[in-house]
Amino acid sequence: MTAPTAPHLWLRHEARTTERRTPVVPEDARRLVEAGVRLTVEESPQRIFPVEEYEAVGARVAAAGSWVSAPPETVVLGLKELPDQPTELTHRHIFFGHAYKQQPGAADLLRRFAAGGGALLDLEYLVDEQGRRLAAFGFWAGYLGAALAVLHHRGRLTAPLRPTDKDTLDETLRPLTGDGEFTALVVGALGRSGRGARAALATAGADPTCWDLAETRDLDRRALLGHDLLVNCVLATTPVPPFVREEDLDDPARGLRTLSDVTCDVGSPLNVLPVYDRTTEWTDPVRTLRKEPPLDLIAIDNLPSLLPRESSTDFSAALLPQLLELPAGDAWARCLERFRRAERELGTDRGGFGHE
Ligand SMILES: NC(=O)c1ccc[n+]([C@@H]2O[C@H](COP(=O)([O-])OP(=O)(O)OC[C@H]3O[C@@H](n4cnc5c(N)ncnc54)[C@H](O)[C@@H]3O)[C@@H](O)[C@H]2O)c1
């Protein structure tokens, strides 16, 4: 990294029209400005916080997408994918690149950085020295994954899903007189999304069974299939026997009625729920896997976007200390090193093809 003077940070508009979240909320923008960071915020029609709130705390406002002509030393900050243009990326970019696990489009993105000499500081790889993520949306993913499952189970889930706020969501989650009891299981219960799922289930008046690594080591699939609701929140790092198999779908003794897959590892060899082949969408959040006995699936891969204010606020609070370290900081150095490794693996670094 370059000399440790406060950088010029540029919060960009998100290209994806349904993305209302932001990695920096106005209150934290104030802290950045007070710390001497030069902050530019792009206008963005869908961002949950109006640009005026950033302007009021001392940020400079720029047009949506104008980061492309920002000065070269600028660090461009966003959450999700960049627009397709320009093909040459010259800046340092902080966002979720999804570029290191051979995801679709990963090689193209790395080539764009190689072509422009820029760098990706991927938020998924912003970790402490133990490798723990420093800023993540998991809690709210789990909260929503469990909330949608309960609402569906109670016949109160309406489509299309729309972004909301926690108070409104919680209103619909609280049990009404006449709501029947149900059993719920959260797997991966000790993680970020597992904690979120447990919180939502508590609001819904349920007391879930909680499993993590210790409880699935010797998997009791019959017990698992005996719950009405399953909320899967695991982050698998090595292949394990699937929690639900194709043959379990046709098991007449299966009690499971709603499967909410927060993990959404569809297509991955690490997938613990290999019983479906594509995620579900905001327009159509529930898919019937079996009619008899009934089993419905909810597998939405952008759950935290449904609570953009709360999820942005928490994420921004976690990211702020790291942004204050820029352009130095061990965590950013680890991010950059991960990017350089991906470049080398692809043979796009300027050292030439495949050289270490
Ligand atoms: N659907 C979405 O919108 C969305 C959003 C954010 C994150 N996610 C995904 O949710 C998953 C969980 O994320 P997180 O932040 O909660 O991760 P985390 O690391 O905080 O928690 C994962 C938990 O799973 C447990 N676990 C791992 N393997 C297990 C096994 N075989 N059996 C039982 N427990 C096991 C771990 O011990 C840990 O407690 C990730 O795959 C992440 O990509 C999805």
From TrEMBL:
It catalyses: L-saccharopine + NAD(+) + H2O = L-lysine + 2-oxoglutarate + NADH + H(+). GO terms for biological process: lysine biosynthetic process via aminoadipic acid. Residues 10-144 form the Alanine dehydrogenase/pyridine nucleotide transhydrogenase N-terminal domain. Monomer. Its EC number is 1.5.1.7. The active site is at 80 (proton acceptor), 98 (proton donor). Belongs to the AlaDH/PNT family. This is Saccharopine dehydrogenase [NAD(+), L-lysine-forming]. GO terms for cellular component: cytoplasm. Pathway: Amino-acid biosynthesis; L-lysine biosynthesis via AAA pathway; L-lysine from L-alpha-aminoadipate (fungal route): step 3/3. GO terms for molecular function: saccharopine dehydrogenase (NAD+, L-lysine-forming) activity. Pfam families: AlaDh_PNT_N. It comes from Streptomyces griseoruber. Coiled coil: none annotated. Keywords: Amino-acid biosynthesis, Disulfide bond, NAD, Oxidoreductase. Residues 172-299 form the Alanine dehydrogenase/pyridine nucleotide transhydrogenase NAD(H)-binding domain. It comes from the Bacteria. Gene3D superfamilies: NAD(P)-binding Rossmann-like Domain. SUPFAM superfamilies: Formate/glycerate dehydrogenase catalytic domain-like, NAD(P)-binding Rossmann-fold domains. InterPro entries: AASS, AlaDH/PNT_N, AlaDH/PNT_NAD(H)-bd, Lys1, NAD(P)-bd_dom_sf. NAD(+) binds at residues 132, 191-192, 212, 216, 262, 300-303.
